[in-house]
Amino acid sequence: AQKITQTQPGMFVQEKEAVTLDCTYDTSDPSYGLFWYKQPSSGEMIFLIYQGSYDQQNATEGRYSLNFQKARKSANLVISASQLGDSAMYFCAMIRHQAGTALIFGKGTTLSVSS
Amino acid sequence: NAGVTQTPKFRVLKTGQSMTLLCAQDMNHEYMYWYRQDPGMGLRLIHYSVGEGTTAKGEVPDGYNVSRLKKQNFLLGLESAAPSQTSVYFCASSQGVYYGYTFGSGTRLTVV
């Protein structure tokens, strides 16, 4: 069965510092996709970044990058130069191929950025 | 604006009451999903649909029913609400695996 594990319930970082949010996954599918979403206190789900299992390079989107280590089944999100607006819940998710390509989510990590 | 619209945004129900949550998308997406979000649990899939007229169970379907009579609409029904169904409900849609997912803004449901 597919599974996403986020082991950090909460993370704290100062402005302008980099932070890594951990995500490990389990799947037997050779082809899969991994996502990171941000959920601020307002509640909406904001797409951050996507990594395909066959992508040769780690995905990057502005200050977000995905440290994809296939052999270790990890897909950590790296946020460079943290900003106060980065304070939010962050979810790692994987495509669940046997359920209409629905996403399976981890339990999330709450990131708090202080000045 | 194109996207996924959920109605209502907030609702308080008494135990045993019924209600329907509506999800509407105007992007002609084939796939639609209902999730519930509870503290410390992430988002869990309730039901999903891979096209008009089709529905299937997700990981937490008990107590819920769904219908997709029109491609653009995906309805989630609670026939007899229970306090355990107090949650935030999200609808999402997608055109396929690599086209991304669009989420609605959520419905906060409280069952007392």
Task: Summarize the model shown.
The complex is a heterodimer of chains A (115) and B (112). Chain A contains no helices and twelve strands.
Tell me what the structure shows:
The complex is a heterodimer of chains A (115) and B (112). By secondary structure, chain A is mostly beta strands. In chain A, 0% of the residues lie in helices and 53% in strands. In chain A, the strands form three sheets. In chain A, strands 2, 5, 6, 10, 11 and 12 form a six-stranded mixed beta sheet that branches. Chain A has a four-stranded antiparallel beta sheet with strand order 3-9-8-7, with no helix packed on it. A two-stranded antiparallel sheet of chain A has the order 1-4. Chain A is globular, with a radius of gyration of 14 Å. The model of chain A has no long low-confidence stretch (mean pLDDT 94). In chain B, the strands form two sheets. In chain B, strands 2, 4, 5, 6, 9, 10 and 11 form a seven-stranded mixed beta sheet that branches. Chain B has a four-stranded antiparallel beta sheet with strand order 1-3-8-7, with no helix packed on it. Chain B has strands at residues 4-7, 10-13, 19-25, 31-38, 42-49, 56-57, 65-67, 73-78, 87-94, 101-103, 107-111. Chain B is globular. The termini of chain B are far apart. Chain B has no helices and eleven strands. The chains are: A mainly beta (115), B mainly beta (112).
Strand content of chain A: over 45%
Encode the helix/strand succession of chain A as letters: EEEEEEEEEEEE
* Major sheet characteristics of chain B: 7 strands, mixed
Low-confidence runs of at least 5 consecutive residues of chain B:
none
Task: Round the mean pLDDT of chain A to the nearest integer and report it.
Answer: 94
Oligomer: heterodimer
Radius of gyration of chain B: 13 Å
Series of H and E elements of chain B: EEEEEEEEEEE
Count of alpha and pi helical runs of chain B: 0
Number of helices of chain A: 0
